[in-house]
Fold this protein.
Amino acid sequence: MLESLKINMKKFNILKGIPANLPMINIDTDMIIPKQFLKTIKRTGLGKSLFFEMRYKENGQINKDFVLNEKPYSNSSILLDIWAIFKVPSISLKFTSDE
């Protein structure tokens, strides 16, 4: 089944961008992109859903205290997990926002 999926990605050697630090331990995959946003087969448009429950308040307003909503980090193309650098178990992600 996976053999039938063909993903065309451009090769790159260097990624230049603004790194944002998300200092959290044990990031649950549902925190990254909540399941209600995964009902699409498209691989575009998911950037606005990234860390949705932390980026937005319950009333839908932007949470200005969340790192990805702060300038210049709102334009980050690299997400760092500082805990991983210090060998604390967690995950590290690289992402590009589709916004």
In short: The first helix runs from residue 29 to 32.
